[in-house]
Amino acid sequence: MTPEEFRRHGHAVVDWVADYLDHVERYPVSSKVRPGDVRAQLPARPPSSPEPFEIVLADLDRIVVPALTHWQSPNFFAYFPANVSPPSILGELVSAGLGVNGMLWATSPACTELETHVLDWMVDLLGLPDRFSSASSGGGVIQDSASSATLCAILAARERASGGTTNRTGTTGRLVAYATAQAHSSVEKGLRIAGIGSDNLRLVDVDDSYAMDPAALARALECDVADGRVPFLVVATTGTTSSMALDPIPAIGAIARSHGLWLHVDAAMAGVAAIDPALRWLNVGLELADSYCTNPHKWLGVNFDCDTFFVADREALTGALSILPEYLRTAETGQAIDYRDWQVPLGRRFRALKLWFTLRCTGVADLQAMIRRHLALTEELTAWAREDGRFELLAPARLNLVVLALRAGDDATRELLARANATGRALFTHTVLGGRYGIRICIGGRTTERRHVQAAWSLLSELAG
Q: What is the distance between the alpha carbons of residues 159 and 52, in angstroms, rounded to a whole number?
């Protein structure tokens, strides 16, 4: 592909993406293809000579789009939002075009320093404690996901608890971590990867709102200490996936401090809501946290992957993750941040560009307005559900998540979900709370308006019978 061909085809691709985003509402939200349908349309072998780009682009429409779940649809209420925005897409394009690897400061100083600066912006925009700023002993880094952030927190906590010995000896058998059954699955997966193991994860009891019970945490800690175990980590969640439960960070943090535990706070979706100053109550107790993460790639219009991960003590993190072979030494080693020491992989993309583009080209006021709009729509949906005697809420409606069920029972709720999703007019997912099967309705699409929420509720109401 010549430079001129690249320019021409690039314009066509941007036009294609712009048209897709403009028309995405027209598509059924979920695909009706069956396993193997996509591969059946693809040739068994790659072409030996170049194909016209126009044919490749046409196959996007013919093969790919009909087999997509349209996460950018304003009628997508499943899982969690995964918004993109035009500025973020352009930032991603520039990142791909530059093709830099920001593993060291020396391998592209702008990649490192822009990331540090934009993460400091996020500390200010979200009202996070100053200890997470690069001007302190801590700082921020962009991970690919909250799962990676959790793993990094586990590794840092493991090394701090062992005095730095577990990376050398691999002995982790007495270490114990704590979370609730409502915490993200990445906690258990991270413990497996870190050599701690699932058996050394204690699932702490929750209260009626599905938030961690601090008294139950204290009892679990006392039992493990008495049994000769070494508690080293507690993971609290600000906005659980199933119910948007908010673990009481101040009480958990006080207990963690008294036992010398590392406190990691996972605020993957909910945390970015604090960009609205009226929602800064979400941050209460974070001054007690050793690490914290939230995902602009969920609710803030930044393309996946972009998790902002903050630590209060960067040396605890780099001490767990830093290995310095001779071929990575530079004249600036030790004088500047090398983000390879803040993550599991060595290589890293220029992710900060899409966050920087989004904040600059969208503006904070518009992002705040979007969050407020979604909260207002969630309140309205909650009111409709409460007024309909056929439905009940399985958890308190918080922020942008409603979990409801039919009073007729689990089978009726399960059937309702299947029938609603089969229409293609909206997409919902399910969870189980207190033994009850529930429908999750998460309102977070960048282009979702009242008419979309109203249509989703009408769909459920009509099919409920």
A: 54
Give the CATH number for residue 416: 3.90.1150.10
Where would I find the H helices in 76-126? 86-98, 109-126
Alpha-helical (H) ranges within 162-312 are 166-169, 186-193, 214-226, 249-259, 296-299
**Is there a single domain that holds both residue 170 and residue 213?**
yes
- Cα distances from 44 to residues 40, 41, 47, 66, in angstroms, run 9, 9, 10, 20
pLDDT at 317: 94
Q: What's the mean pLDDT in 445-455?
A: 97
20 and 150 co-located in one domain: no
Query: Do 48 and 98 have their domain in common?
Result: no
Q: What is the pLDDT of residues 35-76, one digit of tens each?
A: 999 999 999 999 999 999 999 999 999 999 999 999 999 999
Q: What is the pTM of this model?
A: 0.93
Strands 307-311 and 139-143: antiparallel
Q: Residue 270 carries which DSSP code?
A: G
Give the residue from 396, 2, 319 showing the smallest Cα distance to 163: 319
**What would the pLDDT profile of 135-193 be if each residue is shown by its tens digit?**
999 999 999 999 999 999 999 999 999 888 888 777 777 999 999 999 999 999 999 99
Is the peptide bond between 338 and the residue preceding it cis, with omega within 30 degrees of 0? no
Nearest-Å Rg of the Cα atoms of the chain is 23
Domain count, the chain: 3
Among 35, 68, 101, the domain-final residue is 68
- Put the strands of the sheet holding 429-433 in their side by side order: 391-393, 401-406, 436-442, 429-433
Q: Is the pLDDT of residue 305 over 80?
A: yes
Contacts of 285 (CB under 8 A, 6+ apart): 248, 249, 250, 251, 252, 253
The Cα–Cα gap between 274 and 295 comes to 12
Can you tell me the mean pLDDT for 441-455? Answer: 97
Domain housing 213 = 93-362
How far apart, in whole angstroms, are the C-alpha atoms of residue 367 and residue 355?
A: 12
Segments in 227-324 forming alpha helices (H) = 249-259, 296-299, 314-321
Question: Which tokens hold the place of 257?
Answer: 């401090």
Q: Which amino acid is at 101?
A: N
